Amino acid sequence: MSTSEPFDAVDVIRTKRDQGRLSDEQIDWVIDAYTRGAVADEQMSALAMAILLNGMERSEIARWTAAMIASGERMDFSSLSRPTVDKHSTGGVGDKITLPLAPLVAACGLAVPQLSGRGLGHTGGTLDKLESIPGWRAALSNEEMLAQLEDVGAVICQAGSGLAPADRKLYALRDVTGTVEAIPLIASSIMSKKIAEGTSALVLDVKVGSGAFMKDLDRARELAQTMVALGTDAGVRTTALLTDMSTPLGLTAGNALEVRESVEVLAGGGPADVVELTVALAREMLDAARHPGTAGIDPADLLADGRAMDVWKRMIRAQGGDPDATLPTAAHTETVRAEADGVLTELDALAVGVAAWRLGAGRARKEDVVQAGAGVELHAKPGATVRTGDVLMTLHTDTPDRFARAKDALAGAVRIDPVAASARTSTMVFERIAAD
Ligand code: URA
Q1: Do the bridges between strand 429-433 and strand 375-378 make them parallel or antiparallel, or are there none, so unpaired?
Q2: pLDDT attached to residue 275
Q3: Per-residue DSSP letter, 358
Q4: Is the pLDDT of residue 206 over 70?
Q5: Terminus-to-terminus CA distance in the chain, angstroms?
Q6: Known catalytic residue: 88?
Q7: Does residue 190 have its Cβ closer than 6 Å to ligand 1?
């Protein structure tokens, strides 16, 4: 340790290792010192593991989040003529909801700044999906973003590197040290970026199930409650929906495949679960924004009558894309067929996500290039009656040597029962979490 540092990283680690509470000063220092390189990666890894094992009090998480926000810039949307509202999903398979949702909520009269990411592992990234549209660009300056928000009402773009740089460094470290799953660290990571972004209202879509970070409802509820409290305390009106991620959302997982499905939803069609969740989140966003101008508006109407589609086209054009261009398709396809007669009762989200990833839709390392046309197309969802030999999925890739490993990932993913007794009948939304 340099003699000019006010704390010793080892003392901070010992405090948490021994189940103590970190002081505000310790937290401010350790985040700042880690960002500037005065706390080493191995020390921060040990601290992250101690946090994963021993947890943090609410007030510690709030201070940790504030310290991460203070590591970078804060954006300011106060000059806009309409209020801002954002949505964040904790990530899942086939989760293309941002694509129809942002233009839909903008069509209702709000400004939607969606700072999005790229996919890593089995969950897809919104930017990767949109980059399958010819000409579309993800990187915008803050000025371009503000101008588009004022003019079109919706922007989906890459988060600038100035936002919560401490999180960028810490997230990369957690990824390789088995510490991603700590609720205090997930909550502070997500909320530091959302609060720094400066939105006035936020709706969280916390996914539950095999394809999500949170596999069970209790942990998802705890994560949602922690994030809602952080947002509310920071002056951002925040609510959360706990939603189903046991099976993929919609009928596609893969970049261009998901854009195509999103456009179907914007055209008033598309799979029922995608429409249901898009409308549920849009209603929550209108509610959270509390803007008198949106009173009495039902987002379902704007999806059905094409007004959301008009905003989508303007949003894509504003970022250099051609919304009418033909989307890329993969060079090769193979099918997966039903092996029994009966009712499809399970179609595992994680297995489909891993298969899409192995087909080339996702990346294993940050620098990997994704295939625009790769992915999995589903022809049946849980609840459907199928017959032996029916096509259940079409696998798409440019590199056919990937088919075998994708099929390995799908082994055991499908369950067909003779009767419909256990067929899934639930709706997408399990629970709503608001501030206490
Ligand atoms: N997404 C984030 O931004 N951070 C996490 O820790 C997990 C998901």
Answers
A1: unpaired
A2: 97
A3: I
A4: yes
A5: 42
A6: yes
A7: yes
CA 344 to ligand 1 center in whole angstroms:
32
pLDDT at 422: 54
CA pair distance 51, 94, nearest whole angstrom: 31
Range(s) of the chain covered by CATH 1.20.970.10: 9-55
Confidence class for position 213, pLDDT limits 50, 70, 90: confident
Question: Which residue ranges does the chain devote to CATH 3.40.1030.10?
Answer: 85-325
Q: What does the block give as tokens for 237?
A: 């009106």
The model's pLDDT over 244-286, given as tens digits with 9 standing for 90+, comes to 999 999 999 999 999 999 999 999 999 999 999 999 999 999 9
Residue ranges matching CATH 3.90.1170.30 in the chain: 332-417
* pTM confidence score: 0.94
What's the mean per-residue pLDDT of the chain?
94
pLDDT tens-digit series, residues 374-397: 999 999 999 999 999 999 999 999
Out of 177, 186, 205, mutate this one to test ligand 1's pocket (max ligand atoms within 8 Å of CB): namely 186
DSSP code of 59?
H
Residue type for 127, please?
L
The answer to whether residue 174 is catalytic is: yes
Residue 280 near residue 429, CB atoms below 8 Å: yes
Query: Which of 86, 95, 128, 167 is the catalytic position?
Result: 167
CA–centroid distance, 89 to ligand 1, in Å, is 10
Residue nearest to atom 2 of ligand 1 (CA): 190
Catalytic (active site) residue 194: no
Phi and psi, residue 231, nearest 5°: -65, -50
pLDDT at 419: 78
- 193 as an active site residue: the answer is yes
The residue whose CA has the least distance to atom 3 of ligand 1 is 190
Which CATH number is associated with domain 85-325?
3.40.1030.10
> Which CATH homologous superfamily contains domain 332-417?
Pyrimidine nucleoside phosphorylase-like, C-terminal domain (3.90.1170.30)
Q: What is the pLDDT of residue 340?
A: 95
